[in-house]
Amino acid sequence: DAYDWYNLGVMQTYQGDIKEAIESFEKALDSCERNDARYQIKRHRAGLYKPNSERERAKQVLSSSMINDPSRCEHLVELGALYEEEGRDDEALVFYGLATHYSIPTSQMSLHIPYYTHFPLTRMMKIHGRKGDLRSAIEIGEKLRTCKYFRHQGPLESYLKSFRLHIKGED
Predict the structure, then answer these.
(1) CA atoms of 52 and 103, how far apart (whole Å)
(2) Counting Cβ atoms within 10 Å, is residue 154 exposed (0-12), middle (13-18) or buried (19+)?
(3) Model's pTM, two decimal places?
């Protein structure tokens, strides 16, 4: 049963039995019929490849997860993070940017999950700052400023002030 294999994979992950956990998640995928569950299984499996220097395989698994649940964006955030960790900022910006446009459709409204809105915007602002594209960093920071549940306004204001002072010094 898919859920039994999935739960076993989770337990093996916590016990540090990574190879066995990957095998359990693969068996869960083979027997799973629900796409939303397949999405989660793939995300867990991809997370196990990353620390084992199988980053390309993690990217492949994350990329394929969109097929199972195109309304979700966690895989985009995780792909962005993988590329950012590799110093491939342009690719990271693409995936983070895509993730910021997702919302969860419901019958009455669309919801934005704060982590999946704030995290990619924060990372995008910092990447633009690192690259010296301070005007883009400020533009992203202004979007963050308007996010209702963003709780790091103090550090954000500090970043924005620093970016503006740097730009003013260049003019």
Answers:
(1) 32
(2) exposed
(3) 0.84
State in Å, rounded, how far the first CA of the chain is from the last one.
64
> CB burial class (10 A; 0-12, 13-18, 19+) of residue 66?
middle
> Which tens digit of pLDDT belongs to each residue from 98-115?
988 876 555 555 555 555
Residue holding tokens 């359990």?
A: 24
User: What is the three-class DSSP state of 65?
Assistant: helix
**Angstrom distance (rounded) from CA 71 to CA 104:** 7
CB atoms within 10 A of CB 100: 20
Residues contacting 79, CB < 8 A, separation 6+: 59, 62, 63, 95
Query: For position 171, what pLDDT does the model report?
Result: 64
Q: How far is Cα 29 from Cα 67, in angstroms, rounded to an integer? A: 13
DSSP 146: T
Least Cα distance to 139 among 105, 100, 112, 170 occurs for: 100
Residue bearing tokens 């068996």: 27
- Reported in sequence order, the residue ranges of the chain that DSSP labels E, i.e. its strands, are 104-105, 110-111
